[in-house]
Write a structure and sequence with these properties.
Keywords: Isomerase, tRNA processing. By secondary structure, this protein is of the alpha+beta class. The chain has 4 helices and 11 strands, in the order ββαβαββββββααββ. The chain has 2 domains: about 5-95, Pseudouridine synthase, CATH 3.30.2350.10; about 100-190, Pseudouridine synthase, CATH 3.30.2350. Strand 1 (about 20-25) and strand 2 form a beta hairpin.
């Protein structure tokens, strides 16, 4: 998920610290809090971000993938150029496995499924994205219903992005008729107001360690 939306507005950085989930000589896995950019934004007031905070302690840390400002969860941060290259290739090959937890409005009709809807930038509503069969890039999300809260009429779902388009999970769930709670960009006002934060968290990641070649996996429970 990219940071394109965050380059256009002032986004106050949370004071909540990041957490180190794993550390060795060549890479980190960290848990990013919500309401913190992964990298600096274009706006001069958007310089406080995850990577700059991490680099105070780990000067050689670099970004290989991103989470949106509003999204919390796990990120791999390489500490060497070799590891950066290796992890980048794993992402390009779609061999990195990851899933997210989200809370969405309504009850899903199916317990699990696959959403395949092409996505493109919405030129009329930048910085939003939209489903666009003509110009959109192929995008695929697997979903699984975890639970349904009838009293509140919302569902807890596990989302696995097979592709990694900007705002893919948010737009795909919206297209399915289930906007995410706290989503100030895509959810109707009443649904956006149901949570002080976007209810989307990168809970799990699995990849091959660039040096040992062992498969390693990490999880960080959703804070909601």
């Amino acid at each position: 998920m990219s940071n394109s939306t965050e380059e256009l507005a002032i986004l106050p950085a949370t004071s909540e610290p990041y957490q180190i989930v794993y550390e060795d000589d060549v890479l980190l896995v960290v848990n990013k809090p919500a309401q913190l950019l992964t990298v600096p934004g274009r706006h001069p007031q958007n310089q406080d971000c995850l990577i700059r905070r991490v680099q105070r302690e780990f000067p050689f840390a670099e970004v290989v993938h991103r989470l949106d400002y509003d999204t919390s969860g796990l990120l791999i941060l390489p500490l060497t150029k070799r590891v950066l290259s290796d992890i980048s290739k794993q992402f390009q090959a779609r061999s990195v496995q990851k899933h997210y937890i989200a809370v969405v409005e309504g009850k899903l009709a199916k317990a699990k499924g696959v959403i395949e809807l092409p996505l493109a930038a919405d030129e009329q509503k930048r910085p939003l994205y939209k489903v666009c069969p003509q110009q959109g890039k192929p995008s695929e999300t697997r979903y699984r219903l975890l639970s349904y809260n009838a009293a509140a009429n919302h569902s807890r779902v596990q989302l696995e992005p097979v592709t990694g388009r900007s705002h893919q999970l948010r737009v795909h769930m919206l297209a399915l008729g289930h906007p995410m709670l706290g989503d100030s960009l895509y959810a109707p006002g009443a649904i956006a107001a149901k949570s002080p934060r976007l209810m989307l968290h990168a809970e799990y990641i699995r990849f091959v360690h660039p040096l040992s070649r062992a498969v390693i996996e990490f999880s960080a429970p959703a804070p909601f």
